[in-house]
Each structure stands twice: as C-alpha cells, then as structure tokens.
Amino acid sequence: MADPRDFDELVGGDDLEPEEELRLRRVHDLLVQAGPPPDLPPALERIPDEATHAEIVQFPLLPRRRWAAAAVAAAALAAAAFGAGFLVGDRGGSASDVDAVRVVPMHGAGGALASIRLGKRDEVGNWPMEFVVSGLAQQPEGAYYTLYLTRDGKPRIVCGYFRVGSHTTTVRFTVPYKLRKGERWVVTYQPKGVHDPGRIVLST
Amino acid sequence: MAYAAAIPRVQFVTRETDAELIQRAGDGDRGAFEALYRRYARPVFGLALRRLGDRGRAEDAVQETFASVWRSARTYRPERGPGAPWLYAVARNAIVDRSRGRTEVGADAPDHASDEPDPSERTEQSWVAWRVHRALEELPEREREVIALAYWSGLSQSEVAEFLGIPLGTVKTRTRAGLQRLADLLEGELE
C-alpha cells in the first residue's frame, strides 16, 4: 500500500502552479514533522476555573490533579439535578431558574460535591445563586451547614445556611457582595449551638 | 483516528489575534482568556506531553501554564513580538518548572553519541509542532477532520472517504483546502 501521507496521493499536484505546489508541499512536510496533536483529556476540554484563581491559597481537601475531575463531576451533578427537575427546597420548580454566568464546582472529603450557579447581578447589586450539593452527611437536629465567601483564605462572609437531605439538595441564595478576584467559597458544618465558622467540608 | 474522533464540535469563531486576546485577558477579560484557551490548550498539552512524558503531569502543566497566562498577561507588550512566541515561552517555563527534580541522580554518563535529537533540535521540533497544532485549531472542522485522518490515522484516502461517508473527491478537495489554509496561517514557517 502506498504511504497514505504521500503528497501526490493526498493532494495531487498536476493542476497546481509550481509555486503553489511548493507551498503546499512545505505544509505537508510540517504536518508530518509535527505529528498528531494529542487528545485532550476530558478534564481539559473546558477551561479549568482554577486557572483564573491560581493565586488563591488552596484548601488541601483534594490533590490538585484531581481538581479538574471534581469540577467535571460537580458539573454533572448540577446538570443531573436540573435535568431531572430534582429541586429540594423549591418543590414547585422543575429546572434551574438561575441563568448562570458562572458555574463554580466545589469538592470535599468523602466524595462530597457541589456546584454554585451564579446568576447575573441585578441593577442594584444582588447576585442570585443556586447551590446544588450531594454527599454531605445529614446533620442532626439543630445542626446545619453554612456557605461562606472567604477573605484572606478564611470563611468570613455568610452567603446562606442550609440543611441537606439524603440525596441531592438544591437551595437558592441571593448575596449583595461584590465578588473580588481571589475570593473562594467554602461550606462549613455548624453543630447545634455553634455560630462561629465551623469545620470546612467543601471548598472551591 | 482517536484524534479525529475527539475533535471538539465547537467552531472557532473569533478572529482576533493572539496579541489582542492576551491584552484583553490582561485587562481581566475572561472571554478573551477562554478564547486563548481554546486556541492553545491542545498545543500546550502536546508540548507538555513531549517534555514530561506523563499525561497527569502534562495536565498539571496545562493548568499552570494558563494560570501563568492569566497572571502575567498584563505584562505582555505587543511591540516586542507576536502572541504565539510569548505564550510558547510561558508554557515552556511552566513545563520546565514541573520537570525540575525529575533528573535521575547517579546515572552514568553516556559513552556514545545519542540518536536522540539534541536540545536545539528538540526545541525546533517543539516550536514547529506548537505552530502547526495551533494552526490546526483554526481550520473548519470538516477540513481538520480530513487532515487528521489522512495524516495520522494510517488510513488511505479511499478509506477516509469510506470512514466519513463522503466521496473520495470531497476528501481530496478538503485536504487541499485545509493545506492551503494552513499555508496561509503558517506563512512564517514556510520561509
């Protein structure tokens, strides 16, 4: 069999001007020299959100290499929840009504995953936010979870409080904070009677 | 074959130059940054894979490269040169950082000349691959698909036609059109 990368076989140069044939032969040689581009791993098919938050201190809940995989899983979690119309906390809803301008994955110990769908800020400065979470331990009576924005790497600004069920939980918040570059979200577990930020169980 | 099957079904629509996108990214424009990512994710991953030889480490290097691009785009000066070499330098630095510490200690010095390309040849090959893979991202999908199959799948053109379910003449037309487009995009490489 002829080499499938033979120029004459691939392009056929009979009807080409000599100058054009030379130009295409050079491209042909470059393609052969360069070899095939690699397949992108699924985790890199979309831009890792982490790339634009690289200066932020990482919470060491997951090895960094697994971050992108967690992002994909969290996105799938969000898609599955919205697609199924499975909205705990808004029994009348059938699909997300937050028109997301940004989706932020979160991950935590024990395979807990979450995603934040951040909507467009309204004219007076409110950001709608839809938070979908799975894999967090169900809390005893009186305990709850809190979604915080961080400042200086620590949970400082409350976005909302929630409890989780046995499957996927979706809650909606509205926050008026101006998001600054470098801020992250974390979720803390708040035992009954504890109101200061508790143990971090999820982070972006 | 795997490459052709994995080609994203997203058409490359922006016609802005790399330099314009880098400058906009430097101003915090995430859309511009994403356009750069679409153009360069595969070339960066390819470069990292060639240098590091490990997909996991190469993935990390891609993330670090684009984190560096985001952080340092503001320092890019178009009057000093086009965007592609600047991005190549950022990627190379990120990859070199990641490869540090991998040198095996105690290995004997080779007592004969290696058949491997020397560092300058490797650099040259990497740069060619970088530019070619970057240019491929600009092709319409139907041309990119045909070229990928024709050059790297091992299929003959008749087999490519059969695989894609299109006439052989169409395969040849698309191949030629793709090469012509690549020739325009790679003008500097053809000197």
Structure, described:
The complex is a heterodimer of chains A (204) and B (191). Chain A is built from 3 helices and 8 strands; from the N terminus they run αααββββββββ. Chain A is α+β, with helices and mostly antiparallel strands. Chain A folds into 2 domains: 1-37, no CATH class; 43-203, no CATH class. An 8-stranded antiparallel beta sheet of chain A has the order 5-4-7-8-1-2-3-6. Chain A is elongated, with a radius of gyration of 25 Å. In chain A, 33% of the residues are buried. Mean pLDDT of chain A is 74; it is low at 53-65 and 81-95. Chain B has 191 residues and is an all-alpha fold. Chain B folds into 2 domains: 15-101 and 121-138, Rna Polymerase Sigma Factor, Chain: A, CATH 1.10.1740.10; 140-191, Winged helix-like DNA-binding domain superfamily/Winged helix DNA-binding domain (Arc Repressor Mutant, subunit A), CATH 1.10.10. In chain B, 67% of the residues lie in helices and 0% in strands. Chain B contains 9 helices and no strands. The radius of gyration of chain B is 19 Å and the shape is globular. Residues 1-14 and 101-114 of chain B have low confidence and may be disordered. Classes of the chains: A alpha+beta (204), B mainly alpha (191). The interface between A and B is large, with 40 and 54 residues.
Can you tell me the CATH topology of the largest domain in chain B?
Rna Polymerase Sigma Factor, Chain: A
Based on the structure, what is the oligomeric state of the protein chains?
A: heterodimer
Q: Given the C-alpha coordinates, what overall shape of chain B results?
A: globular
Strand arrangement, largest sheet of chain A?
5-4-7-8-1-2-3-6
Query: What would CATH call the architecture of the largest domain in chain B?
Result: Orthogonal Bundle
Helix proportion of chain B? 55-70%
Order of helices and strands of chain B: HHHHHHHHH
Provide the succession of SSEs of chain A.
Answer: HHHEEEEEEEE
Q: Could you tell me the radius of gyration of chain B in angstroms?
A: 19 Å
| Greatest interface by residues involved | A-B, 40 and 54 residues
| Poorly predicted ranges of chain A | 53-65, 81-95
Largest sheet of chain B: none
**Number of domain units of chain A:** 2
